[in-house]
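Entry for the shared binder. Reason: the reviewer on the internal report wants the predicted structure included alongside the sequence.
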Amino acid sequence: MTIDLKPLENANRLLFRIPLEPLQGGRFQPTGFPSLGAAEFQTVNGKSLLVESAQSMANRLEMTVWDTAKNNVKEDLNGLSHVRVTRNGAFLTDTILDSHRLNSPYLLEGKKDRTFLNTLKDELGVLETGPIDRQKLAEVLLKYDVNSLIHGVFLAKKELAGGRLRIARALSAFIEADNVQVAASGGVKNDHVNPSGDAKAGFGNVPFARDEYTAESITLYVNLDLVQIRGYGLGDAVERLLILLSLYKLRALTGAGMRLRTACDLKVVDKDIQATMSERWALPGLEDLASEVTSAIAKCKDSDGKDRMKVTPVTFEDELKKGKAEGQAGLDDDANDHEDASE
């Protein structure tokens, strides 16, 4: 089956509004933020809640293409460009796993080996001043890390156009709950040896409070920016790949169930997922998408008679140190993703 993307040709965005519900019971645990806790907000319809942020959803969508057991992309997706980092001969990380993608300090901050940073400088061919050639930037991102064209990147190194190279997310998602109420509970950490021991040292019985939530509705919102993807100017083969790969990620995430936290295990209410557009468009099944992505990868790699995507090995031999490396502070959160501080 060939997936027909022609109905999307005149659309600026591909939007989804996907109803969710707890897998068991009616309670769920939202994401939490330092010094804030759960992100409640008021709307005209009552109290709502941010269940999962756009930053965290980006991380979860990225992981749908990764085989954790093999430390590599899934077999159907072989050929996608990404950068593998090793340390002392062993796998360390990958641009698919790293929250900053190509701006990872394990690629750009090595003191002994700056080969990859120099490669980016040579291929981007940019100075600290002057306009940015966005099509050239998109070509380089396609070659080394295609996921950066979907999930965004901010190359904050001064050596790279003065830290001005960035791509916003083309695929974004978040989960909200409406008409929520707190389901307060709690418990006790029991110490059967010394119930009255020093709690600060980890001994003794320690009571604790716990807030979960109930909601009238829980919704996953998804936005695929088709205008941004077309604006890369990389041709029909790449455009098709980026759209199909984004849809694959969405179907893989929703199809596998979403256990976001210990007490937040959600499922899709209706597996027949329809886009909310002027003309409704159904999200294809995972097997069809996987087959189409495999074909799109092959066509993209052979486009223009040159290999446009590659797997790049990089060695990071410096000792891991605490603290922020140059170019990592002050990153735009819209293009660089971080897991929320949740249980």
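Summary line for the report: The chain is about 25% helix and 30% strand.
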